Amino acid sequence: MTRKLRLKVFDFIIIILALFFTSYSAYAIYSGPQTNTNVIIRGQDSEWVFPLNAEETVEVQGPLGTTLVRIHGSEAWVESSPCKNQICVAAGQIHRYRNWIACLPNNVFLLIDGNTLDGNTMEGNDGIVTDSISR
Fold it and tell me: What is the pTM (predicted TM-score) of this model?
């Protein structure tokens, strides 16, 4: 006793609306009016800020040793790290606003940040990033 389920007109409308809102949400989140995109590199005791279009190699000291961070071709990535699992290296290259890579064992964090066309930081006028816990 198999019964075929047939989609009705309303089902197609719901599917199309869901696809539209999913696509729009992804577009709104991952695109934006960026002009000055920066890479912020935080280590155990230091912080560096470079434009994403810079050509830089940064050696970040951490508790396990030196993590090598590269910025090239408007992308940033962890080239090598002394951590055991190498998850930060496997994360690959990042280039979009709010993308990040963390090497937790070696206390190294990379973040793509930027400014809007009007010159304000994307987090707000005070430059403070808030999340659901700190609000």
Answer: 0.63
